[in-house]
Amino acid sequence: MARIAHGRWTHDHTGDLTVFLIGMRINRLWRPDAWLPVLAAMGPMLRELATDPDSGFLGYRMTLGWRGPVLVQYWRRAADLYRYATDRGARHRPAWTAFNRRARRVPGAVGVWHETYEVSRAESVYVDLPTVGLAAATAARPVTGRLDRAAARLAG
Fold first, then answer.
1. pLDDT for res 131
2. What integer pLDDT is reported at residue 146 of this predicted model?
3. In a domain, 155, yes or no
4. Is residue 69 part of a domain?
5. Which pLDDT does position 129 carry in this prediction?
6. Mean pLDDT, 10 residues at a time, the chain of 156 residues
7. In principle, which of 17, 63, 95, 102 could form an S-S bond with 119, CB 3.0–4.6 Å?
8. Is 152 left (phi over 0), alpha (psi -120 to 50) or beta?
9. Alpha-carbon span 135 to 13, nearest angstrom
10. E-assigned strands of 2-154?
11. Does 39 fall in a domain?
């Protein structure tokens, strides 16, 4: 079990930040041949990114719903994300090609989506939790003094 960081914490990060949301939705539960490979492809991509400090990938958080996962990914820059997405030597391109092939064979069985946000400033607070989210992807520091209020944390 993850260690609880008691008290109030915030993330400690300055500079560029891109937040990338990506998910899949299982539309036809009875077609695991269409959606299971999509689900299985994410783990190897995350491992590939996590082991490459030059990728610009800072970390992620995943939640599971009954129709599929949603990941919040943190990146240094959108350019890093797009470089990975188009890198023919990385795991993403073959996975995307395979998804498109299956989607043509079994239309509508599984859906994928993503949203990309370039963030100029961010504010966070975590109370009595294991280190999660942006604090886990970057660094965590206690909320003290001038950082006591959300507006002050957002102002920097």
1. 96
2. 87
3. no
4. yes
5. 96
6. 93 95 97 95 97 97 96 98 97 95 94 97 96 96 92 89
7. 17
8. alpha
9. 8
10. 5-11, 18-26, 57-65, 68-75, 110-118, 126-129, 140-142
11. yes
Residue 44, C-beta contacts closer than 8 angstroms, at least 6 positions apart: 91
Look up the domain containing 135 and give its range.
Answer: 5-12+120-150
Supply the pLDDT for residue 153: 92
CA 70 to centroid of chain Cα atoms = 8
Instruction: Answer whether 75's CB lies under 8 Å from 56's CB.
Output: yes
CB contact at 8 A, 57 and 80: yes
- Please tell me whether residues 29 and 93 are part of one structural domain: yes
Residue 79 domain-assigned (yes or no):
yes
Spatial contact of 67 and 26, defined as CB atoms under 8 Å apart: yes
What total of structural domains would you count in the chain? 2
Both tokens of 67, joined, read 């129709």
The confidence score (pLDDT) of residue 3 equals: 94
